[in-house]
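Task 17 of the worksheet. Students: predict the tertiary structure of the chain below and write it out as structure tokens. Keep your answer in the requested format; marks are given for formatting as well as content.
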Amino acid sequence: MSLFDVVRRFGTWRLVLFTGSLLAFLALHLIRIPLVLLALVLETALGLLNDAATRQASAPPRRPVNDFYAHPRQAGGA
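Model answer:
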């Protein structure tokens, strides 16, 4: 079925609607590509940030946490 057959059978208005729908479909997918890339960049950055925060939070403290009372290692010398 050629383009002229479609116009003859369904009319110009239907052909314009079909072309508009096709162009809208293509435009939406072209808009989607940068958003998907942005989501991938955000996912990577948040994963790296999560790993760094997990490493920081799970590391043992470098100095005693309790600053208000004498520490057992320092008090009795035992």
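Marker's comment: Residues 50 and 56 are 10 Å apart (CA to CA). The chain has a mean pLDDT of 88.
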